[in-house]
Amino acid sequence: MEKEAVPRIKKILKRISFWFLVSLIFLLVFMFLLGIGFFDAKNISYNRENWINNINSEKEKLPPIPIIPPLDKADYDLRLKKLANIKENTAPPLNENDIKNSINNPPDSKVKPQEQVVIEPSLWPVNAVYPNAGAILPFKRVVAYYGNLYSTKMGVLGEYPENEMLERLMIEVKKWTDADPETPVIPALHYIAVVAQGSAGKDGKYRARMPDSEIDKVIKIAEKVNGIVFLDLQVGFSDLQTEIPLLEKYFKMPQVHLGIDPEFSMKTGVRPGKIVGTFDAADINYAADYLAKIVRENNLTPKILIIHRYTQKMVTNYDKIKPLPEVQILMHMDGWGGADKKINTYKQFIYKEPVQFTGFKLFYKNDILEPKTILMSPEQLLKLTPRPIYIQYQ
After folding, report:
1. Of 345, 304, 361, which Cα lies nearest the Cα of 155?
2. Which end of the chain is more exposed for a tag (fewer CB within 10 A), N or C?
3. H or E stretch at 233
4. Where are the beta strands (DSSP E) in 50-184?
């Protein structure tokens, strides 16, 4: 009996040891979970709140998506009339006698001249398409410094050290703000990204493309004054169809716009500087269409397209130029000389051939070469019809 009891006792002890070990492991796991609060419902809620808060804090680190209000068409129209120097409600309404008199005495009748009122049709404001929301013009005026960082002679942008140049630009911005307080001013750098040159170059196109490093530098400089940037193209023997796509990555940036210079678009085989070049409406519409495509594909606010002009032949078929909701087109008076000469150029080639908006260039040096001439002031330019909404200093 004793010999049979010993194995049985051993089996019982093994079972007890096994279940004891299992119970001990379970107890240790339970105590561990209890210690970290696994069964605490409050703690579960707290951890979930922390998780949500962490997500929200990560969202806060992202730049906010700008909210662009819809276009205020009423304000837009009023500002266009202001640019055209049209005052609201200046003429009293016609009464019944006035209407009868106009019917009985048409303009070709023998009524005395002082009794007739002749109203000439106005070219401005232009009846163009409304821009998309976020358009700069005519809600703000742009004041720009023009030039190239490699040259001290091509414009004020490259003539002075960076800080001094920006300080001078902001002085001009202040002058325009004081002259027209109702129109906020945006500073801009108008950089010649493709420069016409007298030598043919390796490909025989008589133009030099600036490296990306220089364009990047200009964009960073403009950021210091919350300014925008224009990349200007002097295509030489090349064309816009070749040059604009090479800069597409920059036009995808919301603050980068385009300027094109017909003076250096040489379509006749004569090298730049010998004669004045030209762009046709087809060239300008290509540039506008290309920018519009970029705007649509990248959900951008409207771009500004600037065309320099100071002669009749620099721009042909102006009436076929088509402003778009995505692209605001601005004809820029680019001639230099005394005030009378510049105003006459403006009247002949900008006023008489309206497109959409206008600009005016001031040369710090060339405009005052003649004796007793001074640089035109903002107050003088605001008397022009239409008022320029883009001002460039060279």
Report:
1. 361
2. N
3. strand 228-233
4. 141-147
3-class SS of residue 390: strand
pTM of the model: 0.77
Length of the chain as a residue count: 394
Contact status, residue 169 vs residue 143, Cβ threshold 8 Å: yes
Q: What is the dihedral of CA 102, 104, 107, 111, to 10 degrees?
A: -110
What is d(CA 306, CA 174) in angstroms, rounded to the nearest whole number? 23
pLDDT value of residue 295: 98
Strand partners, 280: 316
User: Would you give the DSSP letter of residue 156?
Assistant: H
322: left (phi over 0), alpha (psi -120 to 50) or beta: beta
Task: Give the C-alpha distances (Å, rounded to integers) separating 282 from 11, 84, 236, 271.
Answer: 102, 27, 17, 22
Written as one letter, the residue type at 240 is: L
CATH of domain 141-393: 3.20.20
Instruction: Count Cβ atoms within 10 A of the Cβ of residue 194 and give its class: 0-12 exposed, 13-18 middle, 19 or more buried.
Output: buried
Q: How confident is the model at residue 38 (pLDDT cuts 50, 70, 90)?
A: very low
Cα gap 393→144, rounded to integer Å = 6
pLDDT in tens, 88-106: 654 544 455 554 454 455 5
Angstrom distance (rounded) from CA 223 to CA 246: 23
Residue % of the chain over a pLDDT of 70? 75
Average pLDDT in the chain: 85
pLDDT, average across residues 69-81: 96
Q: Label residue 230 exposed, middle or buried (CB < 10 Å: 0-12, 13-18, 19+).
A: buried
